[in-house]
Amino acid sequence: MAKVLNWQLGREMNYPYEQAMPERQFAFVFNINRCIGCQTCTMACKSTWTFSKGQEYMWWNNVESKPYGGYPQGWDVKTLNLLDKSNPDGNTWGGKPDDTPNSTAPYGRYDGKTVFEAAEKGSEPGRVLGYLPSDDEWRHPNLYEDTPPGERGEPFKWDSQGVKLPEHKAWFFYLARICNHCSYPACLAACPRKAIYKRPEDGIVLIDQQECRGYRKCVEACPYKKSMYRPTTRVSEKCIACFPRVEGNDPEFKGVPLETRCMSACIGQIRLQTLVKMSADGTWAEDRYNPLYYMVKVAKVALPLYPQFGTEPNGYYIPPRWAPRGYLRQMFGPGVDTAIERYMHPDRELLAVLQLFRRSNRIIFRYEWKPGEKVYEREYGGKKFEMFNDEVIAYGKDDREIFRTRVEEPVIVRDEKHANSI
Q1: Given phi > 0 = left and psi -120 to 50 = alpha, else beta, which region is 190?
Q2: What's the pLDDT tens digit per position in 222-236?
Q3: Nearest-CA neighbor of 390 among 418, 412, 409, 377?
Q4: Do the beta carbons of residue 224 and residue 313 sit within 8 Å?
Q5: Does residue 101 sit in the same domain as residue 199?
Q6: How many domains does the chain have?
Q7: Is there a single domain that holds both residue 384 and residue 309?
Q8: SS3 244
């Protein structure tokens, strides 16, 4: 095992391979507060990549209802239980969070074991702690959809005071998921054939179909269960991050880098994807006006999914503001309280950056924020809130403007002669 820096954990950790970072890293932010669970992203991916024989149960993109839903069933609970058993002292966080943008410990220090470290001293030592889901667990991608927890000890009885912030009594939320294209992929670490690799240009994790022999070690190792076995070809497959679109090889757009199919199909406007600059030590290089760098490193409203697994996922989430904080801290780490507070009381720049979501299917590499006039003022949650009609401008890879939009959406009223023209 080599020592690599995992900045999400605030420390070095053990990993089977030496530190090796791509030039840029494919990354995304999902705003859970906006997701309506329509599954448009799911079907966009399905109809593009996994509609053939042997791929019937393959959902590279899925949206599951938490706390009970999951695909495969119980994927996160089972991995968390394995981690707990491997570390009787508890998988806890310590230290003080560092709020500076380039911090290597933004959430403090994780004192527990990762899936790589837990595997070293298990009853059957291996490279990654994991489990192989049964066939039954892959059968129900929408199990427990829209199912909230009720009052403890009262089956089928929902809380009568379920809709009050800061935490709803009866609650659920939609968790949209794709492969996180991790900086330290568990699937890559576990593959005995070395058939899995990260592309040096964008960090997208792919499986070489010629080298794969279908041992399913990647399926067992991935804590997010986003590597899947195809019985008709006897090899594993996974989300490829629509790399022809990311490369700009879609003939319709003539070399312009595009967001993935699931991102561009999102009608809830919850998704934003880009490529972040990487440093050799495994941290993000400073890129102040990259929208993901701003949300993850500066505003700190977007958090990694289960950072304690140790894979350093490159998928980030703005946590739902109505769910119990203890549940969210388990899922997104100790930065939850700060993230929700800043999202509920956004400053002017954050409010402007949030307007970039789904305004275009082109990848945004840089934004420019221009202050505007004040249009709204009120007290919210005991704090003064002011809204300004600021302008935000998005730029592409070639530094050309993609679009510009404002915080306040324009209202257009039909004139009288067209009022009943429909």
Answers
A1: alpha
A2: 999 999 999 999 999
A3: 409
A4: yes
A5: yes
A6: 2
A7: no
A8: helix
